[in-house]
Design brief:
The chain has helices spanning about 45-60, 70-75, 75-80, 85-100, 115-130, 150-155, 170-180, 205-220, and strands at about 5-15, 20-25, 30-35, 60-65, 110-115, 135-140, 160-165, 185-190. With about 230 residues, the protein is an alpha/beta fold. It has an eight-stranded mixed β-sheet with strand order 1-2-4-3-5-6-7-8, sandwiched between helices. Strand 1 and strand 2 (about 20-25) form a beta hairpin.
């Protein structure tokens, strides 16, 4: 991999007895990397997350979209809401990035959707507890931050943006509950007229605009510690 070519490759990460499938995109001379944590019933093929990822790539940010569950696991509804498992799988993806010499030095952000947002917040909080600020920023799209532990919400230091559709009223309330507990730099952005999947005209474009702006602002650190996450 060189700094002057666009890299797109499929990857597999071995975690315990599972293999996680992922898609890596690295633009020339990236300003940072963003790891996507998909929500329940979604995957690396999510058209919404891929749309956001493409906008990030256009702005010089590398992306890794990865399935946190295998196909068999995803059929089990209870596993979809196993936040601890999702967090451990997300940690394995971070470890993979930190061991990849071509991208390990770039600032790292997390983009979470639905239950994936809870896993992203818990992982970011882990870094704080481990005295390691390796997560530079977090963005949640229609996320369930309320499913993260209270300790994680109160501990996280990474600047966090919560994006919710204005018509997704129950999720707005859940985001507000989590937002109150968070002590980091934070912002709750409600997109008027948007529902949970942001399928309305212009809604996903607004999500992308907000995410690009947030990550460009905080993915500024030129190097980060190459430290594996202990389980």
């Amino acid at each position: 991999m060189t700094r002057h070519q666009l890299v797109h490759q499929s990857i597999r990460i071995h975690v315990d007895d599972a293999y996680l499938e992922g898609d890596l995109h690295v633009p020339p001379s990236p300003v940072g990397m963003v790891l996507f944590a998909h929500g329940s019933g979604s995957s690396r093929l999510s058209p919404r997350n891929n749309y956001v990822a493409a906008r990030l790539q256009e702005n010089g940010i590398g992306t890794l979209l990865i399935d946190l569950l295998t196909a068999d696991e995803d059929r089990d509804f209870s596993i979809r809401f196993d936040i601890e498992l999702l967090t451990l799988r997300l940690a394995a993806a971070v470890n993979w990035i930190r061991l990849n010499e071509d991208i390990q030095s770039h600032a790292l952000g997390l983009f979470g959707a639905s239950t994936g947002a809870a896993a992203a917040l818990q992982l970011a909080a882990f870094y704080r507890q481990g005295q390691d600020d390796g997560i530079a920023a977090v963005v949640s799209r229609g996320g369930r931050p309320d499913l993260a532990s209270q300790e994680a919400l109160q501990t996280i230091v990474a600047p966090t943006l919560l994006i919710v559709g204005g018509e997704d009223r129950s999720v707005i309330s859940l985001n507000e509950q989590a937002y109150v507990l968070m002590r980091c730099e934070k912002r709750l952005q409600i997109i008027p007229g948007a529902t949970h999947l942001f399928e309305e005209s212009g809604a996903l474009e607004k999500v992308s605009e907000l995410a690009v702006s947030w990550f460009l602002r905080y993915l500024a650190s030129p190097t980060l510690p190459n430290q594996k996450i202990a389980r």
